[in-house]
Amino acid sequence: MKIAILSDFHLGYERFFDDAYTQAKEALNKASEVADMLIIPGDIFDYRKPEPEVMAQAVELFRDISQKNYPAKVVEYTGKRLYTDKPIIAIPGTHERRAEDSVDSVDVLHLAGLLVEVNKSKVVVQKGNEKVSVYGLGGIADERFKSALADLDLSLDKNTFNIFMIHQTLYELLPFSEEFTHIEELPEGFDLYVNGHIHNRLELKCHGKEFLIPGSTVLTQLKGVEQEEKGFILYDTETNTHTFHPIKSRHFSLIKINIDGKEPKEIKKEIATVLENKLNSEKGNKPIIKVEITGNLKPGFKPIDLDISEFQSIQKETAIVEVTKSNIKEEDSKAAEELRSGVVENMSIHDFGVSIFTEKLKSNNYSLKVNPTKLFDILSSDDKKEVAVKKAIDEIFKE
Ligand SMILES: [Mn+2]
Question: Could you say which residues of the chain have pLDDT below 50?
Answer without folding.
Answer: none
